[in-house]
């Protein structure tokens, strides 16, 4: 039965974790997967999460089934975080939000929904994009194409190419846009870019799908949702996938959400009914634990403040590691100052696949073969080891 099944290639990001775990070198460093480590090199358990956990355990709640669309107070809190508590869309009940299995789960629900109910066939992702976007949408049955985004010469945005490519897309193409902290490049759009993109998607009748997995790692929780709020204010229909994996350090709990902006409360009701069928036929209903913790934090002003301060600390620590990298690499023949201008967890370092290979084999430093490194895994103890190794391989 299984004799003809071919061996699949290792996942370009999570596969690195497997290789890293199997590496017996004591001084190995994992800059592959997008995970925030603290100054001591540990994945933090946030204080706000710890407090919510204590409350949850003390309540001794039974492990019942959740509603198909998840915890209601969680879904509502997600909406406020993304669209703003005072959004007219929320007042008019035009937004549908369902709890999902992380941001990836939200993307897959969205993909299935577009395929089944909107006859979607084409999707466009940035070049480059998160490694899993292409695989996820092609597995869901879409033709996946690229739109220009990154300019390798300037380490910045290829603005002209971006706008020209978006304008050339056929109507009804689903366009995946990174809401903030572009993964993998760390090159973000400014407010005027977003305004222009909004004009294009309206004029060309494209379907925007904003993927925002790093809210709070750019400028602030509120500012990072600028694009979502801008699109919302225009009244158009669009999709948003969001995640608390990174911002709550809840990776393994799979806490995300899919939100759809519709034209009316009536539209929203029908959309929700179908989305629930998509969920039910995939995994029935979502898990309780992580979403319950997030809901407790987001709905309690004191815990919210604690969380937002902790997130600020993470964001600022990453920025200081960027500056440290730039300082350590100042003597290199090539310019690395762009690392301090990028934002979010990643730096698209410009290292070639061969150089990344050499980092792994010679120094036990793991990075994605595209040259993406996770700056959030650096700390004052390992940053010099990493930059010294980079100076050796380039
Ligand atoms: C990443 O890009 O490293 C993260 O989003 C983790 C993942 O699922 O790939």
From TrEMBL:
Pfam families: Aminotran_1_2 (PF00155). Residues 304-335 form a coiled coil. It is an enzyme of class 2 (transferase). Its EC number is 2.6.1.-. Keywords: Aminotransferase, Coiled coil, Pyridoxal phosphate, Transferase. One of its GO terms (biological process) is L-phenylalanine biosynthetic process from chorismate via phenylpyruvate. Residues 27-390 form the Aminotransferase class I/classII large domain. InterPro entries: Aminotransferase_I/II_large, Asp_trans, NHTrfase_class1_PyrdxlP-BS, PyrdxlP-dep_Trfase, PyrdxlP-dep_Trfase_major, PyrdxlP-dep_Trfase_small. Its cofactor is pyridoxal 5'-phosphate. One of its GO terms (cellular component) is cytosol. GO terms for molecular function: identical protein binding; L-tyrosine-2-oxoglutarate transaminase activity; pyridoxal phosphate binding. It comes from the Bacteria. Homodimer. Belongs to the class-I pyridoxal-phosphate-dependent aminotransferase family. This is Aminotransferase. It comes from Entomomonas moraniae. The lineage of its organism: Bacteria, Pseudomonadati, Pseudomonadota, Gammaproteobacteria, Pseudomonadales.
């Amino acid at each position: 039965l299984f004799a003809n099944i071919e061996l699949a290639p290792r996942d370009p990001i999570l596969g690195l974790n497997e290789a890293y775990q199997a590496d017996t070198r004591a001084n190995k460093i994992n800059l592959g997967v997008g995970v925030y480590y603290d100054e001591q090199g540990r994945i933090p358990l946030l204080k706000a999460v710890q407090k919510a956990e204590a409350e949850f355990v003390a309540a001794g709640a039974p492990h019942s089934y959740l509603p198909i669309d998840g915890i209601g107070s969680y879904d509502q809190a997600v909406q406020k975080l993304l669209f703003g508590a005072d959004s007219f869309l929320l007042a008019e009940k035009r937004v549908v939000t369902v709890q999902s299995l992380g941001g990836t789960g939200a993307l897959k629900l969205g993909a299935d929904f577009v395929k089944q109910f909107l006859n979607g066939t084409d999707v466009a992702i940035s070049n480059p994009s998160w490694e899993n976007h292409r695989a996820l949408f092609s597995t869901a049955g879409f033709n996946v194409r690229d739109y220009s985004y990154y300019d390798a010469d300037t380490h910045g945005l290829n603005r002209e190419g971006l706008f020209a490519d978006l304008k050339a897309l056929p109507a009804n193409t689903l366009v995946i846009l990174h809401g903030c902290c572009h993964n993998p490049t760390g090159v973000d759009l400014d407010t005027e870019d977003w305004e222009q993109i909004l004009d294009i998607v309206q004029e060309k009748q494209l379907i925007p799908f904003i993927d925002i997995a790093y809210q709070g790692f750019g400028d602030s929780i509120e500012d990072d949702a600028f694009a979502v709020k801008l699109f919302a204010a225009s009244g158009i229909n669009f999709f948003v996938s969001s995640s608390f994996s990174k911002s709550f350090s809840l990776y393994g709990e799979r806490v995300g959400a899919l939100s759809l902006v519709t034209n009316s409360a009536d539209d929203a009701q029908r959309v929700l009914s179908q989305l629930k069928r998509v969920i039910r036929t995939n995994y029935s209903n979502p898990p309780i634990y992580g979403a319950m913790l997030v809901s407790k934090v987001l709905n309690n002003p004191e815990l919210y403040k604690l969380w937002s301060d902790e997130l600020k600390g993470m964001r600022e620590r990453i920025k200081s590691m960027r500056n440290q990298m730039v300082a350590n690499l100042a003597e290199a023949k090539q310019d690395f100052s762009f690392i301090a201008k990028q934002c979010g967890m990643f730096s698209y370092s410009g290292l070639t696949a061969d150089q990344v290979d050499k980092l792994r084999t010679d120094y036990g430093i793991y990075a994605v073969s595209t040259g993406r490194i996770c700056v959030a895994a650096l700390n004052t103890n390992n940053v010099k080891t990493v930059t010294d190794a980079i100076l050796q391989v380039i």
